[in-house]
Amino acid sequence: MSSTQLSLHHIVQEPRTVRGGAPPLLLLLHGIGSDERDLIGLAPSLDERFFIVSARAPIALGLQSFAWYHAEFVPEGSIINAEEAEDSRKLLLGFIGELVEKYSLDSRRVYLMGFSQGAIMSLALGLSEPNQVAGIVAMSGRLLDEALPLLAPAESLAGLPILVVHGTEDPVLPVQFGRAIQRRMDSLPVALTYREYPMGHQVSKESLSDTADWLREQLDGGGRFAGH
Q: Cα–Cα distance between 31 and 33 in angstroms, integer?
């Protein structure tokens, strides 16, 4: 099922198991040069209770190629369009509200799951607006320096569940970027799970299985807003 009615084009997979009440949202954010059809392929491996939405980034790079912001890769790293990144962060925040309203979802159980540039956006959004998300999965991403001034106060970040997975053989965003996320998160009161895998810039069977288990545990545990 796809939709163009909201601020971002997206594909939807409705919950395969309904257990009463509004379903939790899992928002999938693809990497640069891809589109909304990329990560939706992971949906069958994820918890059946999720209402899964895979969103298309707003910036067209070419045919079936989109980005959350322009990035140029140079030997020293990458040069990004920070204004576009911030625009996309704000757009995603509004998009979550649209999704919750349109599909009657549980606003207290909104999870972000991004790959590469989508992981970067998931971290930027979740760490700046922790009261809007119940958990973050960042796959093969990094934490933007430009996002650091936007970090929410420590008390708002307390207990925020974050899963960071990275490949030790990643040639696009080398593993030191994942380890840098780990170091930064260790200084914050978030509930971080960090894992490395012998893989490149990809989602392996093992990393996907661990991610699915982690997400299931979040739902089974009632989430960080349980009882609020």
A: 6
227 assigned to some structural domain: no
Domain at 11, CATH number: 3.40.50.1820
The helix/strand/coil state of 184 is helix
Burial tier of 226 (Cβ tally within 10 Å: 0-12, 13-18, 19+): exposed
- Antiparallel, parallel or unpaired: β 71-74 and 77-80: antiparallel
Q: Is 228 domain-assigned? A: no
**In the prediction, which pLDDT does 228 show?**
39
Residue-range definition of the domain harbouring residue 76: 2-220
Q: 72: pLDDT confidence band, cut at 50, 70 and 90?
A: confident
Overall domain count for the chain: 1
Contacts of 70 (CB under 8 A, 6+ apart): 59, 80, 81, 84
Report if residue 226 sits inside a domain.
no
pLDDT digits over 162-203, tens only?
999 999 999 999 999 999 999 999 999 999 999 999 999 999
E strands along 182-226, which residues?
Answer: 191-197
Cα separation, 92 vs 88, whole angstroms: 6
Is the CA virtual torsion 111, 116, 118, 124 positive or negative?
A: positive
Query: Is residue 225 domain-resident?
Result: no
